[in-house]
Amino acid sequence: PKTVGFWINVFPYLTDDEGYNSFQRHFRITLSTFRQIAIVLWRFANGVGIWVLEQTLGVSQGLVIHFTDRFLEALLDLEQERIKWPQGVQLTTVIQEFEHGITGLEHNLPNVIGAMDGSHIPIHPPINNSSRFVNRKNFHSINLLRVVDSRGRFTYIYAGEAGSVHDARVFYRSSLYYEISHNQEQWVPGGSYIIGDPAYLLKTYLMKPFPDHDSLTIHERQFNKKPSSMKMCIERAFGYLKGRWRILLSKIYCTDLERIV
């Protein structure tokens, strides 16, 4: 009955373009994989809502969500290949580039294998326990831990902690902390270390600036310029990421927190 009603009462009054789009939506004709990926990339690059895609591309909101989920699942399968901790020759290269200024930074330090920082990804308030996701800047977020190398490439990411969780605690809950704690020589070998901000505790493998206060000596202030400058790798990397994928500039609307992560 629905099919008969559609053809008799609706289809004759549609233009060619409207008829084609309605036909696809009505009979759930699947778009090619290429077009599905194109829709998701267009959504990510322009940062538009799924309702805008429905109006401009003639694809239902449900299909946009479905295409996005499929795309992200496939992308996650490639995570281990694309986001890798530096080892061997690559590790040596990263240390040399951090030390000798190939990164274009004003200040440099020896034996650095990565720069680490947290970032708050804005989200719409979840239905349950929304207060847990309010961060120190008073907006709802997911706390993202990231490490980048000398060229601003992500070598580690950890997402999922609520915005109210302190950056140091996020690190202690991450797999990176677990791996370093159980096999430091494999992850941070030979006196190398990660650069972090003052939020983290000082470790043999984690260097941070001196706490910023009036009693710092001249040498301490001069030293602080180096890790602060090297952390620009992170800001630059995330700036590039947000510039390319503008969806990161707006709040993520999703009631299922597992899907957000």
From TrEMBL:
Coiled coil region boundaries: none
Cellular location(s): Nucleus
Domain DDE Tnp4: 116-251
Protein name: 19026_t:CDS:1
UniProt-recorded Gene Ontology molecular function terms: hydrolase activity; metal ion binding; nuclease activity
Broad class of where this protein is predominantly found: nucleus
Gene Ontology CC entries for this record: nucleus
Family that this chain belongs to: Belongs to the HARBI1 family.
Cofactor(s), by name: a divalent metal cation
Key words, A-Z: Hydrolase, Metal-binding, Nuclease, Nucleus
